[in-house]
Amino acid sequence: MKYAVGAAVLAAVTTGPAFAGGIERSVPSVGILFEQGTYVELGFSRFNPDVSGSSDVTGLGSGDMLPGFSGYSLAFKQDLGDSMAVALILDEPIGADVSYDSTNTYPVGSPLSTLDGAQADINSTGLTALLRYELPSNVNLIGGVRAIRTSGTVGLPGVGAYSMTSSTETDFGYILGVAWEKPEIAARVALTYSSAIDHAFDTVETAGAFSISNELDVTIPQSLTLEFQSGIAKDTLVFGSIRWVDWTAFDITPDLYTGSVVPGGSLVDYDHDVTTYNLGLGRKFNDNWSGAILFGYEKHEGTYTGNLGPTDGFRSIGLAATYTTGKVKVTGGVRYVDIGNAKTEFGPTTTTFKDNHGIGVGLRVGYYF
After folding, report:
1. Which of 22, 113, 191, 299 has the greatest number of CB atoms lying within 10 Å of its CB?
2. pTM of the model
């Protein structure tokens, strides 16, 4: 197959859930548009982080507050003549699962204000439709539509007995891109822009005996992704990606929370946009087996992060292997993530989260018709 090595190592880039800036869980790749013929791929993944911190004032610990999470993806690609191809990708683009141990006495703000038993969840489903049109000189135009369906809940029993639930909203954005390829050396460079997607949630907030219903506007931020690969020797490929996401546009600031529970505060917001780097090396060993090693990096900013997402940058290393037989391609991978130290603040109390890490595993099964 024309991109047998390239397809295997590009799958390694996303084997296992994403662990990147903000709440990103999955990053659709335009690489599927360059698979040969009709192709379908099913992916499963699991990431188990270990994230905990302790108060800089009391020394009391938070316990492990990020449970493991799983993900899935389903993708389909079909040629439309010699110069056009379409693809559909189903995934979970964003997510959060935060759970502080209710048996600890972990203070925030004051001894009477704790994150014990605090929980937060963000759930989403994404559907992306892509179209590729090949121009002369191996230049390709890429366009598409992306729909994201999102909902969320939060409960902070030790912070004013606060809770919030949201409606489930589905909204749309667009994707534009351009790619260049040179099949003789398995070279390809693709640059894609994904627009922001704006949700208007109906929310119910409760603090003690007081409850209000309101509208909450949240923006899933825009992004720019550069994907690249090139053969550097026989059956050997270098590949990677650079992805920028406008996370400063993502802000969850419900009216009751910011007005009464934590005046002037946000449940979730980010001080910096995030750029994530991946670089890898792939090797085809024979007609059946190929493998890859992948390094990932995200800058440690050193500023305060939120208590519902106390991580700051990462470094990672991953290994993947692909077995191809007939029309079937199976890729499995494992990834170790050194999660960056983070500091949080809540009123006068600061907390340091350090020595954290995570392990991700993934499996992708592809079939050519």
Report:
1. 22
2. 0.90
